[in-house]
Amino acid sequence: MRHLVPSPQDLWFLPLGGTGEIGMNMNLYGHDGQWLMVDCGVSFNEPLSPQDALTSEVVSADPRFISEQKERLAGMVITHAHEDHIGAVPYLWRRFKCAVYTTRFTAEVLRRKLAQVGLEQDVPIIIVDDGESKQIGPFQVTWLALTHSMPDAFSVTIETPAGRVFHTGDWKIDKQPVVGEGFVASRFSALAKQNMLAMVCDSTNALQAGHSVSESDCYQGLLAAIKEEKNRVVVGCFSSNLARLVSLGRVAQETGRYLALIGRSLLNMVSIARVTGHWPEDLPLIDAAHIGYLPREEVLAVATGSQGEPRATLNRLAANNCFDLTLEADDLVLFSAMMIPGNENDIMRLVGQFKGQNIRTLQQQDTNLAIHVSGHPYQDELRQLYSWVQPEVAIPVHGEAAHLAANAEVAKASHVPRQLVGQNGDLYQLAPNVTVIRQAVKTGRIALLR
């Protein structure tokens, strides 16, 4: 593969994954002969190409372009601990062998992942704090906290002598998050004074008009949905959504129920939250092994498998094959998670299994209550951030083609002078001149687990 080497006058952005698709984010910034990687994620149960009939269990962007010149890789920045941003690091780090820079909660998640593959002593992890700057090769990187559906989510500014870029990572404007501090607008409006050359921005919900719903409103929606129930309630949600777990803990307290977590990833996430100070000390959990002995009206369980994953807890409950809990007719299974595109058939099959046993289900489309909210910005939030940061160039990422185009339209309406829409493998040249070289680098997918 042809090696592109940026000069001291160049500032480049090169997405290898996550642009033109949702998942497996892998981004490179180039300046003065070196590259900086931002995020290194995975997707699950995906084909390696659109023509493939078979899927692989864990898939990442093909890192060959940078792994073949790893001596030019100054370091890796991980913005937050969602799998589509962090999940490939344990599989791919041996190809890079560079330091990883991230914040405290994300570092704890990463350490546990590395321990599973015997790399916990090998990978240098540099922990940074909100507002802190690090010089990583020719890149000065500064971390700015924002709100998302996971604690410790950060944006970064990347400064070089050729220009500055603001990379949002995943975000929303949530003034009342259940975990962490609310979104601080003044920190982002201050970026306009730094003459930001480009803003590389999350596009996941760019097709959605209005403003996303707060995680605090989701707590109220879950409380309203559960408080009238007289039987067992099981909630399926992503284990990474710590705020949702805290909300369900509060709901359990409000409704006289006991909260239990069924699934290793849920237990691991709460353990990480306790170690890093993100789990409220007054929020008790009971051992899942005890929940089967409780009266039905006192049971609130959280289970893995909201996407219909065959080996997760919800599928085992539907098959009456869960060691800790058995459901009966008129119990409720509530889905507090989005339906990820591609998983519709698996989820509806799971719902059908429950309904076949007269176990009730509740999904977001079944109710006006906010039983799930997104962690990504709607159009009003995109418009607000563009108006605060005032970049010269908007680069939509983290979305399929329609999402990227919608983000660009919002940027244009927000008076951002230029919008560059592309896909993985396109080389965005930001300095000394602004242009895009289409398909400058061959990209693709590789299977990490078959």
From TrEMBL:
Keywords: Exonuclease, Hydrolase, Metal-binding, Nuclease, RNA-binding, Zinc. InterPro entries: Metallo-B-lactamas (IPR001279), RibonucZ/Hydroxyglut_hydro (IPR036866), RMMBL (IPR011108), RNase_J_2 (IPR042173), RNase_J_b_CASP (IPR055132). Residues 23-211 form the Metallo-beta-lactamase domain. GO terms for molecular function: exonuclease activity; metal ion binding; RNA binding. The keyword Transmembrane does not apply. CDD domains: RNaseJ_MBL-fold. The keyword Zinc applies. This is RNA-metabolising metallo-beta-lactamase.
